[in-house]
Design goal:
single chain, alpha/beta, 7-stranded mixed β-sheet, 14 helices, about 50% helix, binds the ligand O=C(O)C(=O)C[C@@H](O)[C@H](O)[C@H](O)COP(=O)(O)O, amino-acid biosynthesis, metal ion binding, 3-dehydroquinate synthase activity
Length: about 350
């Protein structure tokens, strides 16, 4: 498969420069901008050198990593756009991982109240999740994605060839979001992920599996862009997961987003068993598999209050209660599930004792 589409603005292609050229040429000379970060600048941009030169695309980059998903980085890019004459008819091309596409989308959505942007995700996490669906934003006050807007990119070009540039941890981080897609919506996708070899990556088979994951993500986005209802399913594992991620960052033991989501899913699978009748044997099997592949972020009971406090900031919460997305079986989701503090602590016990 060299080029294919899931819907009009999600394009799978190994010929990134050709696909991008079709978009870039629609924008005036001097109004084409590109934002990237260090690693993709070195490993992915060389493929686009000719296009950048031919079309006079103005390039800037920010430092990578979760700590740079900040208002400081946003200001830096706003300043670059402002100094170089960007306007509402301009285009911003975001090339990088999930942090970069979230931040770049936010910059483009807010500069002069909005200019066009396209995403070229270079990590697995960005290809199956972050670059799609229009959740743009940055971290603030130690909280994940606290500031942002919903605004879909004009196009997302997915080149699975870029995945050869990422390390094993980043691969597993993206795989976590695919596991989530299987668990919330598609048992067949879950089964194919369970039988895919993580020791010996088959990149040809991977493109097909990624496409299945993208279909799950896109289905939720198309049905509920602004997360009033069923899109909350995509947040499975994230109520506890974001708490783990923020807590890990504060305590100087940062973990990748997908790992945090796996730890969050372990907590929320336990809650799923307690609240929605998720099968106990399956809980054990999945937990052992996740533990073997992703290890664990160690916690003690003295961390529970801080983790709980972080969960109270989750964006799905309403009326002072923490709203979890849980599952009753693989593929069957239950949104807006209220859990008591005692039960959440019990789930943290389950996780801690794994
Ligand atoms: O697209 C969505 O909706 C998701 O919740 C997908 C998540 O995997 C993603 O990490 C998202 O960025 C988290 O968003 P947040 O709203 O919890 O900050």
């Amino acid at each position: 498969m060299t080029t294919s589409k899931i819907h009009s603005n999600i394009i799978f292609s190994q010929k990134v420069a050709d696909e991008l050229e079709k978009i870039v040429k629609q924008y005036p000379v001097g109004k084409r901008f590109l934002l990237t970060e260090e690693t993709p600048r070195q490993l992915c941009l060389p493929q686009l050198e000719k296009l950048i030169e031919d079309y006079g695309i103005q390039v800037t980059s920010i430092a990578g990593g979760e700590t740079n998903k900040s208002i400081r980085s946003v200001e830096k890019v706003w300043e670059f756009l402002s100094k170089n004459g960007a306007d509402r008819k301009s285009l911003l091309i975001n090339i990088g991982g999930g942090m970069l596409t979230d931040l770049g989308g936010f910059v483009a959505s807010t500069f002069k109240r909005g200019m066009a942007f396209v995403n070229l995700p270079t990590t697995l996490l960005a290809q199956v999740d972050a670059s799609l669906g229009g959740k743009t934003g940055i971290n603030f006050n130690g909280l994940k994605n606290e500031i942002g807007v919903f605004n879909e990119p004009d196009a997302v070009i997915i080149n699975t060839g870029f995945l050869k540039t990422i390390d094993d941890q980043n691969f597993l981080s993206g795989y976590a979001e695919m596991l989530k897609h299987g668990l919330i919506k598609n048992p067949a996708h879950w089964d194919e992920l369970m039988s895919y070899s993580l020791e010996n990556i088959d990149y040809d088979a991977l493109q097909e599996i990624i496409a299945h994951s993208v279909v799950v993500k896109d289905w939720h986005v198309q049905n509920d862009l602004t997360e009033k209802n069923i899109r909350k399913a995509l947040n499975f594992g994230h109520t506890a997961g974001h708490a783990f991620e923020s807590y890990a960052l504060h305590s100087g033991r940062p973990i990748l987003h997908g790992y945090a989501v796996v730890y969050g899913m372990l907590v929320e699978l336990y809650l799923s068993a307690k609240v929605c009748g998720f099968d106990q044997n399956q809980l054990q099997t999945i937990s052992q598999w996740m533990l073997k592949v992703y290890g664990k972020f160690d916690i003690t009971p003295s961390d529970y209050d801080s983790l709980y406090e972080l969960m109270t900031h989750d964006k799905k919460n309403e009326g002072g209660r923490i709203n979890f997305t849980l599952i009753s079986e693989i593929g069957q989701v239950a949104i807006n599930q209220d859990c008591s503090k005692e039960l959440i602590f019990e789930a943290l016990d389950f996780y801690r004792e794994l």
